Amino acid sequence: MIPGLPDPAAVDIQGLTWHPGGAQVLSDVDLRVEPGQVVGLLGPNGSGKSSLLRCVYRRHRPHAGRVLVDGADVWASRAPDVARAVAVVTQDAPADMEHTAVQLVAMGRIPHLGPLGRLSATDEDIIAAAVHACGIEALLDRPASTLSGGERQRVQLARALVQQPRVLVLDEPTNHLDLRHQVELVHIGLRCGATVIVALHDLQFAAAACDHLVVLHRGEVALHGTPHEVVTADTLNRVYEVKADVAPGPDGLPKVSLRVD
Ligand SMILES: Nc1ncnc2c1ncn2[C@@H]1O[C@H](COP(=O)(O)OP(=O)(O)OP(=O)(O)O)[C@@H](O)[C@H]1O
């Protein structure tokens, strides 16, 4: 789909602890993600999902522990080297709102450009492929500030893809997307060949889209396993404090029915 995508990388999170201003946000988190795996990060609001992902894409420096991408500690590596390996789509609007969509997408090539910062024909091909994959051709000349939340998220995904990442970090990438674009995100982002770590709120979507699920609770890994092992009535009760029935749906995946009485 995107020309020249490199091999996916393993991600090893070891004893990760982050306590800004004394608040214990992440405590001794261990997680191994195999190359090419799609791992869903679940957990209630405030459980530490975004904080964990920020440690992976080198936004937060952990107070203890480390994140290894193919064996290299991201905080012992140079920022441009990490940017060549790890791309991110966040739930926030991009900072550069005055730029047009195509300028934002092209910024994804910056870690790969030479000293003159010029785009080559190969770079242009990669950008065109990502624009096509994300279906944003009609948005290219629009300033980011005029785009809807879902349009902006697709522009961010295209920017992440042109980075040709070995690891793709997605922080609640579906929160602005309608059903069709959620399904497309699975095809484009989750199956692009990179190792993917994705924070999600919808357990059923996570079960359908991910190979492996990890549930954070109060900054610790509460449980992890296959969708069948993780999406259970017990998890919903113990971690989310809701009553629910979980039974296999027609596709064999866990189907959640919340009890609201
Ligand atoms: N810089 C910071 N300083 C102090 N506390 C922080 C900081 N960043 C995050 N927190 C706190 O850490 C906890 C975890 O936040 P985080 O955003 O990682 O959770 P989350 O699981 O992604 O939540 P949500 O599902 O609501 O997006 C929250 O209680 C949050 O207030």
TrEMBL record:
Which GO terms fall under molecular function for this chain's record?
ATP binding
UniProt keywords, alphabetically: ATP-binding, Nucleotide-binding
Pfam families for the chain: ABC_tran
Top-level taxonomic group: Bacteria
- Please list the residue ranges annotated as the ABC transporter domain: 11-243
Q: List the transmembrane segments.
A: none
Gene3D superfamilies xrefs: P-loop containing nucleotide triphosphate hydrolases
Cited InterPro entries? AAA+_ATPase (IPR003593), ABC_transporter-like_ATP-bd (IPR003439), ABC_transporter-like_CS (IPR017871), P-loop_NTPase (IPR027417)
Spell out the PANTHER family in the cross-references.
ABC TRANSPORTER ATP-BINDING PROTEIN (PTHR42794:SF2), HEMIN IMPORT ATP-BINDING PROTEIN HMUV (PTHR42794)
Descriptive protein name: ABC transporter ATP-binding protein
Q: What is the lineage of its organism?
A: Bacteria, Bacillati, Actinomycetota, Actinomycetes, Streptosporangiales
